[in-house]
From TrEMBL:
The keyword NAD does not apply. Keywords: Ribonucleoprotein, Ribosomal protein. The gene is rpmG. HAMAP family: Ribosomal_bL33 (MF_00294). Pfam families: Ribosomal_L33 (PF00471). This is Large ribosomal subunit protein bL33. One of its GO terms (cellular component) is ribosome. It comes from the Bacteria.
Length: 49
């Protein structure tokens, strides 16, 4: 079973990306380094509620 999640920048907290996550295999929150348009560089993006 997958759920749609939103990724937010850890520095500026802007919500830039959305993706799907399989909640039965990944229990912990997703953390990915992606490009933030607001910051203008690659930053850590975390799953939001």
């Amino acid at each position: 079973m997958s759920r749609k999640i939103t990724l937010a920048c850890a520095i500026c907290s802007s919500r830039n990306y959305s993706t799907n996550k399989n909640i039965s295999t990944q229990a912990e929150r997703l953390e990915v380094r992606k490009y933030c348009k607001t910051c203008g560089k690659h930053t850590l993006h975390r799953e939001t509620k």
